[in-house]
Design brief:
It is a single chain. By secondary structure, this protein is an alpha/beta fold. The protein folds into 3 domains: 3-242, Aminohydrolase, N-terminal nucleophile (Ntn) domain (Glutamine Phosphoribosylpyrophosphate, subunit 1, domain 1); 250-448, Rossmann fold, CATH 3.40.50.10490; 451-591, Glucose-6-phosphate isomerase like protein, domain 1 (Rossmann fold, 3-Layer(aba) Sandwich). It is 35% helix and 24% strand. The strands form 4 sheets. Strands 3-2-4-1-10-9-11-15 form an 8-stranded antiparallel β-sheet, covered by helices on one side. A 7-stranded antiparallel β-sheet has the order 5-6-7-8-12-13-14. A 5-stranded parallel β-sheet has the order 17-16-18-19-20, with helices on both faces. Helix 9 links the parallel strand 16 (293-298) and strand 17. Helix 7 (258-267) packs antiparallel against helix 14. The radius of gyration is 25 Å and the shape is globular. Bound molecules: fructose -6-phosphate (F6R). Residues 299-302, 346-348, 351, 354, 399-400, 484, 488, 605 line the site of fructose -6-phosphate (F6R).
């Protein structure tokens, strides 16, 4: 989490740093800070949003041609001005994204050396450590490398020094960082969106890289000093894609972008009647063909996508599938099978737990690895043998929406490829499945038309403290996703259950104040679900049912029913999640919460 920006240019870089931070605010937004060199070191820090920092910078007319900046998601130390970055030591300033795991030991050593700490952060040790190294290694680039050799953990760092205003030194280990090459200078940031304002020419650093950026260029070396070259890439990211346009919130924009995001993701399949394994990478045919089972590793919403996929993979492709929360899997003793296809799912491709779970799986001898990811240049994509890049476009709202549905589309394609390879699907059936999949963007568009009715429902949730979501089969993960969306952006406590579990405990919670939201497509489990809903109604619970056009569930006292236009068989999970996204969005509006930046959260979870 946290976002960093750095600049050395032929202009006042403060506006660039601030604009970069605004673009990175999705990574953390509890405090922000910047430092510039202008004869001396000028540092500004503010609790809250980047707007607070910008107002401060305006008030003091902050200016300088070399600078670093940071937007924070607190890990070590509460959000406060003293814990906000940059952290300083003498005339040196540092911003950091990640966690220095051995910060306590380093802190004790540095204290013994006479360094005084003014914050509770792990980052401050980096500032003092580099300052200490400078005493014996006077060159900043070399001193930073010497300090890095003593750090354990994850970092993207930018360091500058008032006696040396011509450069900023940056480094990456485990947290994303790229350089931007412009005509008027050189920049660095946590992601490309922050630098599109100045350039499209980007250089992605690898883990273990350290770079010096100057007005007239850059050089990169490994921590041991070995020089390395990294390719310059022309970013394809469109500046419009990260603008809000006519929408009120990014989450709303991203919900409504789903038909396009799905169509773009499916574009690579074109009008094909049959899929090639090569869709997942050059080496996919062998890797997929020989896989005996699938292990899906992911977190949060991406984990929910994996849970849906398990139903598809087992039912359609006939391949055993386990789905694990990445942060649990990595610390669990499991029984590895080297012939497992390990599928990691991540919107950002930078989620620390998912990356670590992948490394753990590999260390257990599982080398058939696939990433389903929305960011082509991300760490996850670079670390797996196979990949499928969803084309959702940048997702800025903290609550994931279009990334989820495009992940589902990718997982369905994977299911079809495995089903074909395993002889579970004939050519005609595959062509039918692909035709159905290509129709999903249009079907999602029709679901979006339900928004006015969902908005009316949302008003009824404004005063509620709790909500229960029910689903069965592959719609149980959709219920989980609906509950997650509601809790993260409206702060209403929500839980999801497979509807059959209700009577085994949670039914005790149901009363008139507990709205119960049911995902009720017209599938084989509908009749069972209807009985579960009767159990709720009999206890006075108010039901909100998302049914299909042909589900026979009638509106009645305490039973509200909304019908999705089409019944969509195995793919209905892709449709049924959409009204739940809209419901949580509108409930959040009713409650007046910060939809795109819910409290305590951040978009890209690059810490454990
Ligand atoms: C919820 C949400 C999170 C993410 C999770 C994993 O709306 O966005 O639960 O899904 O943090 O993130 P990625 O997919 O980037 O690995």
């Amino acid at each position: 989490m946290c976002g960093i920006v750095a600049a050395v240019a032929d202009r006042n870089v403060v506006p660039v740093l601030l604009e970069g931070l605004r673009k990175l605010e999705y990574r953390g937004y509890d405090s922000a800070g910047l430092a510039v060199l202008n004869g001396g070191l000028q540092r500004l820090r503010a609790v809250g949003r980047v707007a607070e920092l910008a107002a401060q910078a305006d008030a003091v007319r902050a200016a300088g041609t070399t600078g670093i900046a940071h937007t924070r998601w607190a890990t070590h130390g509460v959000p406060s001005e003293r814990n906000a970055h940059p952290h300083v030591s003498g005339g040196l300033a540092v911003v950091h994204n990640g966690i220095i795991e051995n910060h306590e030991a380093l802190r004790e050593r540095l204290k013994a050396d006479g360094y005084a700490f003014t914050s509770d952060t792990d980052t401050e040790v980096v500032a003092h450590l580099v300052e200490k190294k400078l005493k014996s290694v006077p060159d900043l680039f070399d001193a930073v490398r010497a300090a890095l050799a003593e750090l354990e953990g994850a970092y993207a760092l930018a360091v500058m020094r008032e006696d040396d205003p011509s450069r900023v030194v940056v480094a990456r280990e485990g947290s994303p960082l790229l350089l931007g090459l412009a005509d008027d200078g050189c920049y660095a940031a946590s992601d490309a969106s922050a630098l599109l304002q100045v350039t499209r020419r980007m250089v992605y650093l690898e883990n273990g890289d350290c770079a010096e950026i100057r007005r007239d260029g850059q050089r990169i070396a490994r921590i041991d000093g070995t020089p390395v070259e990294r390719p310059v890439i022309e970013s394809q990211l469109s500046a419009d894609a990260v603008e809000l346009g006519t929408y009120d919130h990014y989450m709303q924009k991203e919900i409504f972008e789903q038909p396009d995001a799905l169509a773009n993701t499916l574009e690579m399949v074109g009008a094909a009647r049959s899929l090639q394994p090569g869709l997942f990478g050059a080496a996919a045919a062998d890797a997929l063909q020989g896989a005996r089972q699938v292990l899906i590793l992911a977190c949060g919403t991406s984990w929910h996508a994996g849970l849906v996929a398990r139903y598809w993979l087992e039912a359609i492709a006939g391949i055993p599938c386990a789905v694990e929360i990445a942060s649990e899997y990595r610390y669990r003793d499991s029984v590895p099978d080297p012939e497992t296809l390990v599928v990691t799912i991540s919107q950002s491709g930078e989620t620390a737990d998912t990356l670590a779970a992948l490394q753990h799986a590999r260390s257990l001898g599982m080398t058939r690895t696939l990433a389903i990811c929305n960011v082509p240049e991300s760490s996850l994509v670079r670390e797996t043998a196979l990949r499928f890049i969803t084309r959702a476009g940048p997702e800025i709202g903290v609550a994931s929406t279009k990334a989820f549905t495009t992940q589902l589309a990718a997982l369905y394609l994977l299911t079809l490829v495995l089903a074909r390879l395993r002889g579970r699907l004939d050519a005609a059936a595959e062509a039918r499945e692909l035709k159905a999949l290509r129709h999903v963007p249009a079907a999602v568009q029709k679901v979006l038309d339900l928004e006015p009715a969902i908005k009316d429902w949302a008003r009824l949730f404004g005063g509620k403290q709790h909500a229960l979501f029910l689903g069965r089969g592959r719609h149980y993960p959709i219920a989980l996703e609906g509950a997650l969306k509601l809790k993260e952006i409206s702060y209403i406590h929500a839980e999801a259950y497979p509807a059959g579990e209700l009577k085994h405990g949670p039914l005790a919670l149901v009363d008139k104040d507990m709205p119960v939201i049911a995902v009720a497509p017209n599938d084989a489990l509908l009749e069972k679900l209807k009985s579960n809903l009767q159990e709720v109604r009999a206890r006075g619970g108010e039901l909100f049912v998302f049914a299909d056009a042909d589900s026979e569930i009638a509106d009645s006292e305490g039973v509200h029913v909304l019908r999705l236009p089409e019944h969509y068989g195995a793919l209905s999970a892709l449709l049924h999640v959409v009204p739940l996204q809209l419901l949580s969005y509108h409930v959040a509006l009713v409650k007046g919460t910060d939809v795109d930046k819910p409290r305590n959260l951040a978009k890209s979870v690059t810490v454990e």
